[in-house]
Amino acid sequence: MVDRLANSEANTRRISIVENCFGAAGQPLTIPGRVLIGEGVLTKLCRKKPKARQFFLFNDILVYGNIVIQKKKYNKQHIIPLENVTIDSIQDEGDLRNGWLIKTPTKSFAVYAATATEKSEWMNHINKCVSDLLSKSGKTPSNEHAAVWVPDSEATVCMRCQKAKFTPVNRRHHCRKCGFVVCGPCSEKRFLLPSQSSKPVRICDFCYDLLSTGEMTACQSTRSDSYSQSPKSSLNDVSDDDDEEDSSD
Question: Could you tell me where the DSSP H helices lie in 60-200?
């Protein structure tokens, strides 16, 4: 089915419409063999609060952006190669329902659909696209993914030293390796994580010690695998490093 659509006029026209909606600021999306599988609005858990984002699933990439005018204009385009994606379902918790994690080596985050049926359709289509891509390339699924950040509201004190209380002066920071909320003194070191940045990024002392000694497996226990187990999360307090272009801490 996908192969038949690849060269169809309808598919070319649909992709062209998406390109036009992102305007000059977006990257070209039309390439030979690319098919637009589906699109829709999902709630993405951004760093400060949940926000509606327009998502487009192609047979090789996942694209999303901010909604300026629905079905007419989007900005802040993000493109994720599907061959690097793994997804995990999130258990319903309070107001957070019908969600799943989108995990990549560069960034991992949670999204929520309006209904359970919509969630199932999105996850099935994403898994099918990833499976087809890996089958054609002969590559193995990615086993590396960035941590999903712990929401600020879940940590009143540093999650490493368990002593430093957070205040407007004593700011929260996030370890880029484990996603924990930590204080400044517990995260003064930087370490190069090539999948996330070309420059050394902030990590906590615990992860720094493990990375420095080569014990990366122990440090790989991240929040993204236990995200849905948090009893404190609510629709208004879950955070993720993204759309505000503010990934400083």
Answer: 116-137
Among residues 85, 68, 79, 99, the alpha carbon closest in space to that of 34 is found at: 79
**Amino acid residing at 151:** P
Give 88-94 contacts, CB < 8 A, sequence gap 24+. 88/224, 88/225, 89/119, 89/123, 89/228, 90/227, 90/228, 91/228, 91/229, 93/228, 93/230, 93/231, 93/233, 94/233, 94/234, 94/235
What is the domain extent for residue 200? 152-213
pLDDT tens-digit series, residues 91-119: 998 888 999 999 999 999 999 999 999 99
pTM above 0.85, yes or no: no
Per-residue pLDDT of 118-159, as tens digits, reads 999 999 999 999 999 999 988 888 788 999 888 787 889 999
Which CATH number goes with the domain that contains 117? Answer: 2.30.29.30
The last residue of one of the domains, among 108, 137, 166, is: 137
> Is 152 within 8 Å of 239 (Cβ atoms)?
yes
